[in-house]
What does this fold into?
Amino acid sequence: MSANPVPALAPLAAEPLRLLNRERAILQFNRRVLAQALRADVPLLERLRYITIVSSNLDEFFEVRVADIIEATRLPGSGVTRHDLAAVAGAAHELIDEQYAAFNDAVMPALQRAGIVVLNHAERNAAQRRWVQRFFETQVRPLLVPVSLDPSHPFPLVANKSLNFIARLGGRDAFGRANQIAIVKVPRVLPRVIRLPAELCGLQQGFVLLTSVIRAHLAELFPGRVVDTFSQFRVTRDSDLEVDGDDVTNLRQALRSGLTTRHFGQAIRLEVTSTCPAELSDFLLEQFGLPAVALYKVNGPVNLVRLNQLIDQAEAPALRFPPFEPMWPAPRLARGRPILDQIRERDLLLHHPYESFEPVVQFLREAVHDPDVLAIRQTIYRTGAQSVLMDLLIEAARRGKEVLAVVELKARFDEEANINWAERLEAVGAQVVYGIVGLKTHAKLLLVTRREGTRLRRYLHLSTGNYNPRTARLYTDMGMLTADPGLTADADAVFLQLASQTRARAPRHLLTAPLQLHARLLRHIAQVAAAARQGRTARVVAKINALTDPPLMQALIEAGQAGAQIDLIVRGACMLPPGVPGHTDNIRVRSVVGRFLEHSRIAYFRWGDGVDDEVLYLSSADWMNRNMFRRVEVAWPIRDPALRQRVIDEGLVPYLHDRRDAWLLDGEGRYRRVAEVGVSAQQALMQRFTG
It folds into this structure.
C-alpha cells in the first residue's frame, strides 16, 4: 500500500522532498484522458470514447486502489486514515463531475448537431414511443423481475457494476401490504444502447438508452401501485482476487473458485442519478454498508462505459479517427521468405502499432509448421479470450512439439481467459506452469528451438507489450526478433527457472526482476551521477507508464543534483515532483496522451562521450516497486548501434519534442498542456511509417 500518507525522501537540500500522492497522480492521468474529449481537433465519436475510457479506468481505480485504501484504514499502524480516504474521494468526485459536464455540455450536444441523437422519453415522438413500448414489452420486460422488499423478500445480492433500479412505491401490494421499496435488477444480456429504425428518425441516427426505456415504463412493472420516486444505481465492489499461493495446492482451481464470488466482494462505491432522493440513496448506503463519502450522484447514466455501444453502432466514418493500417516492416523483413532465415542474419526491431504485429504471428506460425522446430516456450499474460497465437500453440502441441506455456493466472481481469487457455493447452499435451508463487509473470518472451544440422539453434521474440494482436493496433510497444546466442541462452534460463524453480545461471545479457533489474537501474543512475560530478556528459531519458518506486526516485534526485539532465516520459502516475528548487531542478517530467495508448518502456543512460559510455534497454517493467520485486520482468539491451539509434529516434526524441499531445508536470503535481498546435509524436510516427 503506497496510497497515503505521502512519503518524504531523504533530505538532500534544506527541506525533505515530499513525493506526490499516488492516487491523485492516477486521477490526474484520467483528467488528461478526459481533456481529449474536449479537443475540437479530435473526431466526435473518439471524444466520446475518451469519456468511456475514463469511466473504465475509474471502475478499476475503485475496484483496486480505493479498495486497498479502505483496507489500509482498518490496519493498525498503516498510517492511512479516513481523512486520507476522504481526500481521495474528494478528488474523484471532482473528476467525475468534470466527466459528466464534458458528456452533457460538450460531446452529446455536438453529436446531436452532427445528426447522432440520444432521445429520452420526452424527446421521442409518438411513433418512436410506440416502437420503444413494443421493444420494452417484447425484449426487456420478460427479463425483469422486480422485488418488493419485506421480511421474506430481503435486499437482493447486487453484482459488481451491474445496472439496477430502486423505486419507492405508493399504495398496497396484492396482499394488502404497504411495502414501499422495490429493486429491479437489469440483466447484463440486455443492450445498453438501442438504435431506433431509420424510418423513425429522418435524416438523423436515433438511439435510446436502456435506462431510458426502463424509466419510461417502470410503472408497468408495478400494476396497481404508484411509483413515487426512483433512481438507477450501480455499486462498485472490491474485485482483487485474494488467493494465497502458499496455502493452495492448485492455483488454477482456487482462482476459478474465486472468480465465482468476485462480483460480490466488499462494496466500495455507490453511483446513483443526481435526481435520486436522499431517502433512497441513504437506504442504499445502509444496505451496502457504505459511508456518505462513497456516494456518487451523477448527471446521466450510471455507467458511461456502455456508451461504447453507441460508438460501435453509429454510421459516421468522418467522426472517427481516419483508418490507420500498420505497415509490414519492409525492406528489413522480406515477404515470402522464411522469417527464421532472416532473423538468423540480423536482429529485427518492431515498433507497434506503426509496424504490423503480423511478423510475430508469422514467426510462431512458421515454428509450428516447421518439422525441424522441436520446442516452443511462451509467456502468456494478456492474450484475450480469442487469440491466434494461443491457437497456434495448441496446434504445435498437437503436432508433437514440446510446448511450454507460462500462464499468468493472476493477470487482473484476464484471469478467466487465461484459465481457459491453460486448460485447452493442457488438454492437447502442452506443459503449463503458472510461474513462481508470490510473483506475477509479466515478462514477454517467445522462444523457439530448432534443429539445424547437428546443432540446436534458438530464436527469440521479446516485447514491451502483450501477445495480443488486437491491442497491438492500439498500444505503442516495441519488440525484437533475434537469434543472438547470448540473449536466447538467457531466455532459455529464464524459462527453466520459471518451470523448475531451480537456481539457473544468472543471465549475462537480460536483466530480470526480481533478481537484477532494480539493482542494475540504480547502478546506471549512479554512473550517470558520477559522470555529472566529474563534468562529463550525464543523461537519463526514461519512457515508462508509471514512476512510484522510492529508491529509483531517490537515485534520480541525486543524479539531478549532481548535474545530470533527466527527462522522464511517464504516461500515468508519477510521484516524483520535477523542477523543485534545490531538489529536482534538472528533472523534467512529461506525459503524452494521444490516439494510441503509450505502453513501451525504454531506459537510456549516458555517462560520458565514449562509445561504451551509454546503454539503452527495452523492458516489460514499469518503475514501480511491484514490477521490481513482485513480478517476473525482463529488460534487454539494444546493442546494435543502428537499432539503438532507431529506438532513440522513434521511441524517445519525438516525445521530447511533442507539441500537441504532451503535458508537463510541475512540482505541485499539476499538469499543463505543452501546446495545442504542431505535430504530435504519434502523428509524426504515423507519417514516418506511411510516407
Observations:
- DSSP finds 18 helices and 27 strands in the chain.
- The first helix runs from residue 22 to 36.
- Residues 245-249 have pLDDT under 50 and may be disordered.
- The two ends are 47 Å apart (CA to CA).
